[in-house]
Write a structure and sequence with these properties.
Blueprint lengths: L6 H19 L3 H8 L4 H29 L3 H21 L2 H15 L2 H17 L3 H29 L7 H19 L24 H30 L5 H25 L5 H20 L4 H27 L6 H26 L6 H33 L1
Length: 399
């Protein structure tokens, strides 16, 4: 194997491959668990809930270990191997036991992989590009959106033409590609970073506490993410019930938004460094609130399709900028900080599911968009507050 590798290109392939692995299976989890192998809906929901909590625990533990070890390549490979095992279990054995083992034991570790890939990418791009490294990191998130745009239709074709279990061939390939890439980065000098040397035990403590501005910003992100998740839960149902569309319209709408997110991510990346990240996220949140207000005024599916331009402008910022933002919350603990994104996303997902369960009545879903708009405005306010708290803290420290 050559001693030098095109690391930037390989990292791009790895994040795209991880997106294929997730994008191919997440939309079909309930179909496999409930419709195909016959789990009770309550059992499936309980397994997913427990798996989400276990993923947070795995992510926090691996983040802590990565900060102690310094070198994240072995941990990423470890997670990828769990992903291969999870996909293989469902692809080859196709039973309730293997499905539950995948959800509860294998996928939680595999799900922690992306956070560590982003942490490794942050270090690599900072070393190679300096201050422009954060811009490149945000741009890389567009590859995940591209994968999510391509993987579900391909998985749907496999499920329709062969078997729904054949969908797991895609994550098997995706995690396999990531594993091969990080084996290559491990055995060559190309993947070794100057900033990832092992730390002494005395230097591997919990690190500095999160600053007040970071805590406020993290709370703002959780509220904004909750609004995004509530919107994602509600929109397919509203398209069919409130806007009198079809299930085909649901797929078209998702494809429009995912396709538009990619170029808008590139545009938002250019603004990083010119404005505070909290301010950028707050602006994007207010754009999303405007979209929700317009959505409630829509008269049919064509109006909803047209509004996805506005939605994509906002969502492209709200899924890319938080990556680097969370990585900086605990200074000197990049791995543990990266796991905060998983913690925030799972918290937001659970809150949105609870709110959906309380408010959804099965016939009309527009009131849920009102709740989402209110939540995203609250999140924007918290982000503006975090920016102001951070500005004042910087002034005090400079005085």
């Amino acid at each position: 194997m050559p001693r030098t590798l095109p690391v930037s290109s390989l990292l791009a392939i790895s994040i795209f491959s991880s997106g294929i692995a997730l994008g191919a299976t997440v939309p079909y989890g309930a179909i496999v668990g409930v419709e195909t192998i016959g789990l009770a809906p309550a059992t499936y929901a309980g397994a997913v809930f427990a798996g989400s909590l276990l993923q947070v625990a795995a992510s926090m533990l691996l983040g802590h270990l990565s900060d102690r070890a310094g070198d994240r390549r072995k941990l990423i490979l470890f997670c990828a191997l769990f992903g291969i095992a999870s996909a293989s279990a469902n692809f080859f054995f196709r039973s309730k036991i293997t499905f539950l083992a995948s959800v509860l034991a294998l996928q939680p570790v595999a799900g922690a992989m992306n956070g560590q890939i982003y942490a490794y990418m942050r270090l690599f791009f900072t070393e190679s590009l300096g201050e422009k490294g954060e811009v490149r990191l945000s741009s890389m998130r567009a590859l995940l959106s591209l994968a999510w745009m391509l993987a579900p239709p391909l998985a749907g074709w496999l499920a329709a033409e062969r078997s729904v279990f054949d969908v797991y061939a895609l994550p098997l390939a995706g995690y396999g590609v990531v594993a091969l890439i990080f084996v290559g980065l491990e055995v060559t000098a190309s993947g070794r970073l100057a900033s990832q040397q092992p730390k002494r035990a005395a230097d591997a403590g919990p690190g500095r506490a999160i600053a007040l501005s970071g805590l406020v910003g993290m709370a703002g992100y959780v509220v904004i993410k909750m609004a995004l998740e509530l919107h994602a839960l509600t929109l397919p149902l509203a398209l069919v019930n409130d806007f009198h569309g079809t299930t085909r319209d649901v797929g078209i709408n998702a494809g429009i938004c995912a396709g538009l997110e990619v170029p808008f991510m590139m545009l938002w990346a250019r603004l990083i460094g010119r404005l505070q990240r909290e301010t950028l996220m707050a602006i994007a949140a207010l754009i999303f609130a405007a979209y929700l207000v317009l959505l409630m005024m829509a008269r049919g599916t064509m109006d909803v399709f047209a509004l996805q331009v506005v939605s994509a402008i906002a969502i492209s910022a709200l899924v890319s900028i938080p990556i680097a933002y969370m990585q900086d919350l605990i200074r000197g603990r990049l791995g543990l900080s990266a796991s905060l994104l998983d913690l925030s996303n799972v918290t937001a997902r659970l809150l949105s599911a609870s709110l959906f369960g309380v408010m959804a009545n099965g016939t009309e879903y527009l009131p849920l968009f009102e709740a989402s708009a209110a939540a995203v405005c609250l999140g924007a306010g918290l982000m503006f507050a975090a920016a102001e708290v951070g500005r004042r803290a910087a002034v005090r420290s400079a005085a």
